[in-house]
Amino acid sequence: MSFQPLNPRPFLQARVGTEVFIRLKWGQTEYKGTLESIDSYMNLLLRDTQEFMDGKPTGSLGLVMIRCNNVLYMGSADAIEITDMGLK
């Protein structure tokens, strides 16, 4: 089995306008929202953002900018099933 490197820019560009789920490196913070745009440094701008701490919703934040170096992982929100939060 050989490792095939993946360029993250096309992955991010393909998800602009879709709902995404982002986990931060620090603590147990997660965000769910619509990916509005990315910049040349791969910073993320989310709209209609919801914040989750330790798997529990803490509220709606609206428009949020997340620096790229704070992201642990990101995926399509519809592909992630989190039963603790009632998301599917």
How would you characterize the overall build of this protein?
It is a single chain. The protein has one domain (8-76): SH3 type barrels (Roll). The protein is globular, with a radius of gyration of 13 Å. It starts with 7 loop residues before the first helix and ends in a 12-residue tail after the last strand. The chain has one helix at residues 8-14; strands at residues 19-24, 29-38, 44-53, 56-66, 71-76. Helix content is 8%, strand content 49%. Strands 4-3-2-1-5 form a 5-stranded antiparallel beta sheet, with no helix packed on it. By secondary structure, the chain is mainly beta.
What is the second-level CATH architecture? Roll
**How far apart are the first and last residues' alpha carbons, in Å?**
32 Å
Shape: globular
- If you average the pLDDT, what whole number results? 86
Structural class, from secondary structure content? mainly beta
| Relative helix content | under 10%
User: DSSP helix count?
Assistant: 1
Measured on Cα atoms, how large is the radius of gyration?
13 Å
For the largest beta-sheet, the strand count, sense and barrel status come to: 5 strands, antiparallel
